[in-house]
Design goal:
The chain has 498 residues and is α/β, with parallel strands linked by helices. Helix content is 36%, strand content 22%. The longest helix is centred in the N-terminal third of the chain and has 21 residues.
Length: 498
């Protein structure tokens, strides 16, 4: 484990977080079977302990899955209207705690307070959106030749394993747990070990709202717990958001009969054509690249810019990067917080070195900030590279930090080729005043999300979310859309004769 999640010897917790009570398994708060635990510390000031949490392993996962397998039947048999009421009540609970949760999110994950407030407000909205889906699960009827009745039913799949990332520790879990529960499933939830407290808060709200204890389990811990959950034979479906490397392992562990929903990495690009409003382009690129400290799966990583406007765009981007105020997200005026862990900060710095070794030019940033208020945090200044070519690692590999690579092209056709020349296909964008060019890009970009004159980040909760290529399994979309609940239900065809 990193220094942010160390296996400390102390037995107690802080802020009410006791490692002997950090898992929720078989209807009770409990610790890890091994008795081991880990710490989470504030990434802006690692002298501040967030809490201690159970370091769960396969034995804990076995107990959690068994508890939900044997206990979720009550919830599955609950009337859809009642399931909706529970999710609505959980949303109300989270809304009442909004200020406290936003502060905890800043301290645990490293967002700015404005970013944390946005996520905290989105989480109850997700629960309310999916609460309505509980009463909208529809079957179909079909004509028959014998005058009987032929229909389909949608029923819960059973035990759902939800493995979620640290960068949106409430929003992403809420859009997995809420539809799974709305459909009547039981859920075993494994949040990231980097953000265990916010995962715990979500489960607490659901239980306080009246969710039967047998319908949910919370298992804290690292990849050992996640791997055991992904491979467990009693888990009917796995929903995962995280890296492509981990998602690939989960897909292999699931085998051919288990449904999986995997949203993974990205190498997202914004195309800037010669006719673009450059002030607007620079502003939305900086938001996509440096917002959330560059730690969003849809964050802007590449700028594919027409040579005619490369220099003036670069000047604007450098000015925005250098003026960005960096610090603890609880401080007024801070626009970019720390990287979530020391390992994440080191990864960004490693890619800065890689870019220079490959011959790209570091124009600004890419430095570890270690003096004064930054001394005990994981702070890195936003980096901008020019002279990047499509085959360089900076143009091919996901960094997941505030690092922006500029690639020059001549016209839209070449831009599309460059955008599509990666193994990823999550999000892309274009800045132009030419609608025909924008629509051509939307058709030909090999990404699941296309943004026209908008940042690559930010999505609507009522629209499908998912990528192409190595960014997604491309089987079931997350969030809204007419087929969104299909992942969490199985279709049964029924023939009836009198």
């Amino acid at each position: 484990m990193t220094s942010d999640t160390t296996g400390a010897a102390a037995a107690g917790g802080e802020d009410g977080n006791d490692p002997a009570r950090g898992n929720f398994i078989a209807g009770a708060w409990t610790g890890a079977a091994s008795g081991e635990h880990f710490e989470r510390r504030d990434p802006a000031d690692t002298s501040q302990l967030i809490g201690r949490f159970p370091a769960s392993g396969p034995a804990d996962v076995d107990a959690a899955v068994a508890g939900v397998r044997d206990g979720y039947g009550e919830w599955a048999a609950t009337a859809p209207e009642r399931r909706a009421e529970v999710l609505e009540a959980a949303a109300d609970q989270l809304a009442r705690q909004a200020d406290e949760l936003a502060a905890e999110l800043v301290r645990e994950e490293g967002k700015t307070l404005a970013e944390a407030r946005m996520e905290v407000s989105r989480t109850p909205a997700n629960l309310r959106y999916f609460a309505a889906e509980a009463v909208r699960l529809l079957g179909e009827t079909y004509p028959t030749a014998d005058g009987g009745l032929l229909l389909t039913l949608r029923q819960p799949v059973g035990v759902v394993g939800a493995i979620t990332p640290w960068n949106f520790p409430m929003n992403i879990p809420s859009r997995k747990l809420a539809p799974a529960l709305a459909a009547g499933n039981g859920v075993v939830f494994k949040p990231s070990e980097i953000t265990p407290l916010l995962g715990q808060r979500l489960v607490e709200a659901l239980l306080a709202a009246g969710l039967p204890p047998g319908a949910i389990a919370l298992v804290q811990g690292d990849g050992a717990a996640g791997g055991a959950l992904a491979a467990h034979p009693d888990v009917a479906a796995i929903t995962f958001t995280g890296s492509t490397a981990v998602g690939t392992k989960i897909h292999h562990a699931g085998g051919p009969t288990r449904r999986t929903q995997l949203e993974m990495g990205g190498k997202n690009a914004v195309v800037v054509l010669a006719d673009a409003d450059l002030d607007r382009a620079a502003t939305l690129i900086a938001k996509g690249a440096f917002g959330l400290s560059g730690q969003a799966c849809t964050g802007t990583s590449r700028v594919v810019v027409d040579s005619a406007v490369h220099q003036p765009l670069l000047e604007r981007l450098v000015a925005l990067a250098e003026s960005r105020r960096i610090g603890s997200g609880l401080q007024d005026g801070v626009e970019m917080g720390p990287q979530a862990t020391r390992a994440q900060a080191d990864k960004v710095l490693d890619y800065v070195a890689v870019g220079q070794q490959e011959g790209a030019k570091l124009v600004t940033g890419g430095e570890a900030l270690t003096e004064g208020e930054y001394a005990r945090g994981h702070f890195v200044s936003p980096a901008i590279f020019t002279g990047v070519t499509p085959t360089m690692r900076l143009a091919q590999e996901e960094v997941f930090g505030p690092l922006l690579a500029l690639l020059q092209v001549d016209g839209l056709e070449q831009a599309i080729e460059v955008v599509n020349a990666t193994a990823y296909g999550l999000s892309s964008g274009i800045v132009t005043s030419d609608l025909a060019q924008a629509l051509r890009f939307a058709r030909e970009s090999q990404t699941g999300l296309v943004k026209v004159n908008q940042p690559t980040t930010g999505v609507a909760m009522n629209a499908p979310f998912g990528g192409f290529k190595n960014s997604s399994t491309q089987t079931f979309k997350e969030q809204g859309g007419p087929t969104m609940m299909h992942f969490y239900t199985q279709e049964k065809t029924v023939y009836v004769s009198s």
